[in-house]
Amino acid sequence: MKLKFTKMHGAGNDFIVVNAIDQDVSRITPADWCALADRHFGVGADQILLVEKPSKSSADFKYTIYNQDGSLVENCGNGARCFVKYVHDKGMTQKREITVQIATGLMILTLNEDGSVTVNMGVPKLQAAGLPAVVDSLPSRKQGEDTLYAVNVNGGTRWLSMVSMGNPHAVQVVSDVNTAPVLFDGEALEKHAIFPNKANIGFMQIHDQHHISVRVFERGAGETLACGTGACAAVVAGIRRGVLSSPVTVQARGGVLNIAWAGKGHPVMMSGPAVTVFDGEVPLVD
Ligand SMILES: N[C@H](CCC[C@H](N)C(=O)O)C(=O)O
């Protein structure tokens, strides 16, 4: 069988986008997605995005996400922006506001006049248990409204904010993202025993209350050039700690994301670029 796909990226976080409405992907396994995402033996991508028929009548599409390692993901912010551009460019809808079913519920995506996309990323969950993270035996301290947990890793202690954007994020403040041990600590924390489902690990440098730089070691993908949900989690953590004010411009390694959050109980709004690189076709072993 041959699989048609589109290679896209959002601020350098790259995707293989597959129309799973017009193509039967039922026999493609997580191991196949993993092979396609391989940067040396496959097409290469941080995540695979499937555009599917929704099972809920209130949604226009369903959006299923796989990490580079073949694991399923609950939510993907940069992917959501590419999703909107994809269904528009392929003539699958004329709507500029699209409701998409994801693993954790419904997400509302808006295609702006300038081609950028604004995503309602939903209300963040602020309890560590919701990630899930097992924090009962960890030292903790309050900063503003946030609770930080002390986690020992690689011979040091990191103070982490726990934020769920549907997927699990642990965020720490660093003095310089360029020199932060993102790979060394990120890999150890992603798989730390306190995260039974693993976690995405964010490193945030604060420039001023409206500007930060963020690097994220992603669960199942390693460090990416940008992570939409990671940028949202960092802004939520910074606002709760009392060191950021909405809106916040987030500099990722591959581009800029704009995040607004009105506080507890409100959804996080994210905007940023969505870019098509090329359309392709790959043979798959039957
Ligand atoms: N790159 C994505 C997040 C993927 C998260 C994934 N690595 C996970 O396992 O939760 C984003 O833009 O939000």
UniProtKB/TrEMBL annotation:
Encoded by which gene? dapF
Segments traversing the membrane:
none
- Which pathway does it take part in? Amino-acid biosynthesis; L-lysine biosynthesis via DAP pathway; DL-2,6-diaminopimelate from LL-2,6-diaminopimelate: step 1/1
Q: In its UniProt entry, what is this protein called?
A: Diaminopimelate epimerase
GO molecular function list: diaminopimelate epimerase activity
One GO process term, biological-process aspect: lysine biosynthetic process via diaminopimelate
Q: Which residues bind substrate?
A: 13, 47, 67, 77-78, 167, 200, 218-219, 228-229
Record-marked site positions (Could be important to modulate the pK values of the two catalytic cysteine residues):
169, 218
* Matching Pfam families: DAP_epimerase
Cited HAMAP family? DAP_epimerase
